[in-house]
Amino acid sequence: MDQTPTTEPSPQGEGPGTATVAAADHEAPRTTANTKAVLSVENLKMYFPVKSSGLIRRTIGHVQAVDGISFQLPTGGSLGLVGESGCGKSTTGRLVTRLYEPTAGKIEFEGRDIANVSARSLKPLRREIQMIFQDPYTSLNPRHSVGAIIGAPLAIHNILPKNKILPRVQELLEIVGLNPEHYNRYPHEFSGGQRQRIGIARALTLQPKVLVADEPVSALDVSIQAQVVNLLQSLQREFDIAFLFIAHDLAIVRHFCPEIAVMYLGKIVEIADRETLYSRPHHPYTQALLSAVPDVKQAAIGGRRERIRLEGDVPSPINPPSGCRFRTRCSLAQEICARAEPPLLQIGKRHKVACHFPGELGHHPEKPITPRLLGVDDTGAPDPGAAPAAEVGNDPGFSDTWFDLERRSMAKA
Ligand SMILES: Nc1ncnc2c1ncn2[C@@H]1O[C@H](COP(=O)(O)OP(=O)(O)O)[C@@H](O)[C@H]1O
Ligand code: SF4
Ligand SMILES: [Mg+2]
Questions:
Q1: Are 301 and 277 in contact (CB under 8 A)?
Q2: What does pTM read for this prediction?
Q3: What is the pLDDT of residues 98-125, one digit of tens each?
Q4: Which residue has its alpha carbon closest to ligand 1 atom 16?
Q5: Which residues lie near ion ligand 3 (Cβ < 5 Å)?
Q6: Where does 37-50+61-263 sit in CATH, by number?
Q7: Mean per-residue pLDDT, 168-172
Q8: Ligand 2 centroid to 322 CA: how many Å?
Q9: 248 C-alpha to center of ligand 3: Å?
C-alpha cells in the first residue's frame, strides 16, 4: 500500500492554493422576520469546577468558560465566532453540539430547548448537529480505515442496510474531493488537508442541519486553508447546512460568515453583520483584534489598519475582572468599567456591542452611554434618582428598535 501522503486534490471550483479565500463575499441567509433561526442560544453558561488537591477533593472555584452568551444561527446561514485562545469558543461549540451539558441557559434547536435533554433524546439530535474538529491529526482514529470512520455513524444510527454503506461512503468521499476508491486506506496515508476532508465527510454522513466547525483550518498549511474553506462554502450552499464557524482570527471568517460574534473571556462583546463589523467596529477589543490581523491577511479584512497593542494576556476565567472583563487591557477603561458590567446593547439594525463607551476608533464618547439603562451614575455607583435597571443583553436575536448612540435613546428601523 502506498505509505506516502497523496497530493492535495484540486477539485473543480476550488481556488488556487493561496491564503486568500473566495473573492466574493458568501451570501448565506441571515435571520430576519422571514428566515427562522435553526439554533437560538440564550444566556448560556458553562462553569467547570476547579477541585482542590488531596484526598477529599472539594470544589474551590469555577472556570467561567462561557458566561451568559446569546446568539442565533439562521437556517442554512452561518455565524462566525471569533476571539483569542481561551475565550470560550470551543466550549460554546461543544455546548451547542451537546457534548457538554450547560450549567445554565437555553439552547433551542428548531424551537425545542435541548440544553438539558436526556441521553436518550440526544441520540437523534446527534444526527442533526455535527462538529468538525480543529486537528485532523488527532480527531481521526488511526487504527480505522477511512471507510470505517465515515461509515460508522450510518451503522450506529441504523440508517442504511450494511450493503448500502460502502456506496454512501464513496459518494461522501467524492463530495469532499477525495478519491472514492481510497475508502480502505488509513488516516496516516493522507495529507493534513485530506484528513480534514475526511473529518468533513464524517460530519456530513448523517446529513446534519447544523455544523459546528471549530477552527477547521487553523492546523492546516496556509496554502491549503483556502481550499478547505471553499469546500465548506460549497457544501453549505449545496446542502443548506447552517454553520457555526469558529476561528481565532477575523480574516478567515470574513468571506464565509455574513454575521460575526466576537468573544472575550466567556462573553460576546460585539456581534454584527459583516459590513459593520469590519468597517465600523465599536468595541475596543474588536478594534484591537482587527488591527492585529497579520499584514498578509489585511486585504482579507478590507485593508490595513493602525496597529493597536493589546497589553498583557487574557486574565484567568476562574477569577475574571469585575465589571467589564476587558478593562484590564482596555486603554479607554474608566471607573464605571470596574463597577458595572456593560450589557450587550443593540446599537444598530444588526449590531450589538457590550461597552460603556462604544464608538468608532478615535470617536468613543467621553461619557458612558449606559448609566440610565443600568440605574447607575457615570462612575457606575448606584443612582437612586435613576430609573430601575432594565434587563438588556440576553435577547438571542435582533430587534426592530435599538439604542441610537447619537440621540442616546431608543430608535426604530
Ligand atoms: N473541560 C474543561 N475543564 C476545565 N476548564 C476548561 C475545560 N475546557 C475548557 N476549559 C477552560 O475554559 C476556557 C475556555 O476554553 P475554550 O472554550 O477551549 O477556549 P477557546 O476555544 O476559545 O480557546 C479556558 O480557560 C480553558 O482552559
Ligand atoms: S466597557 Fe470600559 S473597559 Fe470595557 S471595553 Fe468599554 S471602555 Fe473598555
Ligand atoms: Mg478552541
A1: no
A2: 0.90
A3: 999 999 999 999 999 999 999 888 988 9
A4: 88
A5: 90
A6: 3.40.50.300
A7: 96
A8: 12
A9: 8
